Structure formats: structure tokens, C-alpha cells
């Protein structure tokens, strides 16, 4: 009986994928076209978030996914922000403003802990943490299989097996470049996982380590750009996942990124987890910067321009 239920869920989700793929390709809505930063070979539907949103609603209404997330207004707000951006590609400052609105709703309905500080300080830190997590998951959606694969690991770690199954199906299509998650998918995944992890631990510092990989990606990107006097919100192709794939290949990098994410998640339960996390992150950052310098030096030699990362 359980197996039949799983098969029906898989079948329904696959049908949704084909329906929305057909609609997206026919109407040219929610399509991501190849560009200098986006190296896929053809327009790809940005429907992963839509599929996940509908499947979570569907399973919740059936009572299969027993989670109160669909009664949380933030669930709908983050999805709406993502869909708007996928359709219109809104400026980062407007997207950030909308995320601030979602963050205000989040801190009014979720209570985390931060070093024993008073309620106001904790709410401010919780607000900032929410903004960071949402954008961190969006940032790692730059390589096929990275966001969804890591999200599956986090889903399993938080005993969110229904979400893991839904994501596994999307991962299959994502590897084939049949769909991308889009901002709607990245934001939705981030919120679902943050909501789930918050039920296991309300300690923000432990959650920082738990979500160690996406936290590293966004913090290292900001640090790198700020040190160079660049706009910290302007996208580039020097994230860890970009240079990792370039240096080691797609599959090898994904395996190591999955292991690193799993390792950080386990580390969050240890006494000195935060200290170890910062040490490991510093080592990775040094490796990342040196690799970027090497890439840019090689590029400068071949093109006759100065090295710049």
C-alpha cells in the first residue's frame, strides 16, 4: 500500500513536469535562455519551483505530508517572489525589498535562539538569517544537481522524506536539463528546509553550521566582492561551484559538494562544530581565491590582459 502511494506520487509529479514543460515551451513563459553566464545549450523551463509548490499543496491536502507549512503565509510569499523574478527578472534591490517583507512575517511566526540575547536582538538576527538562507540557496542553483541534491540531503537529515522524494524526481529531470528550479524553486526549498530544521534546532549558530555549504557560498562571495571593491549583489562566475566544476569536472565536484554538505550538517550536532566549520571554511576560501587567481592569470597570459578575480 505504501509502495503504491509512492508510485502514484511519482506518476503525478512526472505528469505535472511534462504538462508544465509543454506549456512553458509553447508560451515562452518561465524559460531560461542560454547566455554568457548560463551555459546550457537550449532554453530550459524554470518550472521546478512550480512543480514543488503544487506537489506540497497536493500532499498536504491529502494528509500525506503532515506539516503546517501550507498554513504559513511565508510559504506563499517566498514562492510569489520567486515566480515574479522568474517571469520579470526584477532588480536585486526590489527582490531584496520583497524578501524583507517575507522576513518580517517570518520573525513574527518563528522563534529562534541566539546566544541568550533579548527578544529584539534575536528577532533582528533571525531576520538577517532568513534573508541569508533564502539567497544562499538561490546562489547555489548554478550547477545542475547542486541545489536539489543538497536539498535532498537536508531533507533526509530533517526526516522530511516526502520532500526528499519530490526533489529526487526533480533531480532526475534537472540532470537532463529538462527543467531548472528557478528562483521560485530555490526560495521555496530554502524556506521548507529552514522550517524543518527549525523544528530540530532553534539555535541559529547550529543552523549556520547545518546549512554550512550554502552559507559558505554566499558569505565567501560577498567577502570576495567587497574586498575587491565590487558590487556584492552583482552576479559572477567565481563561486565555489563554478570553479569547482571547471577544475574537477561536474560529477566529481557534485559528489564532494554533497559530502561537504553532509559533513557540515553532522558537524552542527558537535560541541565545537562552529569552530571547526570556520576553520574548514577558511581553508576552502584560500583554495578558492588561489584557484581564481590561477584561472585569471592563465586568462591574462592568453589574452594579454591583467589578472583580476
TrEMBL record:
One term of GO molecular function:
phosphotransferase activity, for other substituted phosphate groups
For this UniProt entry, what's an example GO CC term? plasma membrane
Protein keywords? Cell membrane, Magnesium, Membrane, Metal-binding, Transferase, Transmembrane, Transmembrane helix
Q: What is its main location?
A: membrane
Q: Where in the cell is it found?
A: Cell membrane
Q: Tell me the superkingdom of the source.
A: Bacteria
Q: Which positions, given as ranges, span the membrane?
A: 5-23, 43-60, 67-84, 120-140, 146-173, 180-198, 204-227, 248-268, 274-292
Answer yes or no on keyword Cell membrane: yes
Keyword Transmembrane set for record: yes
**Which cofactor names does the annotation list?**
Mg(2+)
Matching entries from InterPro entries are given as: Glycosyl_transferase_4
Q: Name one GO biological process term.
A: cell wall organization
Q: Quote the Pfam families the UniProt record gives.
A: Glycos_transf_4 (PF00953)
Report how it sits in the membrane: Multi-pass membrane protein
Q: Where does Mg(2+) bind?
A: 138, 183
The protein's matches in PANTHER family, at most eight in alphabetical order, are given as: PHOSPHO-N-ACETYLMURAMOYL-PENTAPEPTIDE-TRANSFERASE, UNDECAPRENYL-PHOSPHATE ALPHA-N-ACETYLGLUCOSAMINYL 1-PHOSPHATE TRANSFERASE
Report the protein name in the record: Glycosyl transferase family 4
Organism name: Fervidobacterium nodosum (strain ATCC 35602 / DSM 5306 / Rt17-B1)
Write the lineage as a comma-separated list.
Bacteria, Thermotogati, Thermotogota, Thermotogae, Thermotogales
Amino acid at each position: 500500500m505504501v509502495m503504491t502511494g509512492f508510485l502514484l506520487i511519482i506518476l503525478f509529479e512526472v505528469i505535472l513536469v511534462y504538462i508544465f514543460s509543454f506549456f512553458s515551451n509553447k508560451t515562452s513563459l518561465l524559460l531560461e535562455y542560454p547566455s554568457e553566464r548560463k551555459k546550457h545549450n537550449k532554453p530550459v523551463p524554470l518550472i521546478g519551483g512550480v512543480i514543488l509548490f503544487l506537489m506540497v499543496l497536493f500532499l498536504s491536502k491529502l494528509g500525506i505530508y503532515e506539516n503546517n507549512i501550507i498554513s504559513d503565509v511565508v510559504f506563499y510569499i517566498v514562492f510569489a517572489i520567486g515566480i515574479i523574478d522568474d517571469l520579470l527578472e526584477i532588480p536585486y534591490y526590489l527582490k531584496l525589498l520583497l524578501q524583507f517583507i517575507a522576513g518580517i512575517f517570518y520573525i513574527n511566526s518563528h522563534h529562534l535562539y541566539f546566544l541568550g540575547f533579548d527578544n529584539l536582538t534575536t528577532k533582528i538576527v533571525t531576520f538577517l538569517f532568513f534573508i541569508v538562507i533564502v539567497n544562499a540557496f538561490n546562489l547555489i542553483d548554478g550547477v545542475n544537481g547542486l541545489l536539489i541534491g543538497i536539498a535532498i540531503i537536508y531533507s533526509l537529515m530533517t526526516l522530511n522524506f516526502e520532500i526528499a522524494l519530490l526533489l529526487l524526481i526533480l533531480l532526475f529531470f534537472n540532470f537532463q536539463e529538462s527543467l531548472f528550479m528557478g528562483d521560485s524553486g530555490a526560495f521555496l526549498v530554502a524556506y521548507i528546509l529552514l522550517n524543518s530544521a527549525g523544528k530540530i534546532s532553534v539555535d541559529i549558530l547550529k543552523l549556520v553550521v547545518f546549512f554550512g555549504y550554502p552559507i559558505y557560498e554566499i558569505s565567501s562571495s560577498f567577502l570576495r566582492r567587497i574586498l575587491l571593491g565590487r558590487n556584492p549583489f552583482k552576479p559572477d562566475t567565481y563561486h565555489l561551484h563554478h570553479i569547482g566544476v571547471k577544475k574537477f569536472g561536474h560529477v566529481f565536484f557534485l559528489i564532494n559538494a554533497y559530502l561537504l554538505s553532509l559533513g557540515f550538517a553532522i558537524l552542527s550536532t558537535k560541541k565545537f562544530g562552529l569552530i571547526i566549520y570556520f576553520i574548514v571554511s577558511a581553508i576552502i576560501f584560500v583554495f578558492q581565491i588561489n584557484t581564481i587567481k590561477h584561472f585569471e592569470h592563465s586568462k591574462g597570459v592568453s589574452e594579454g590582459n591583467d589578472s583580476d578575480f
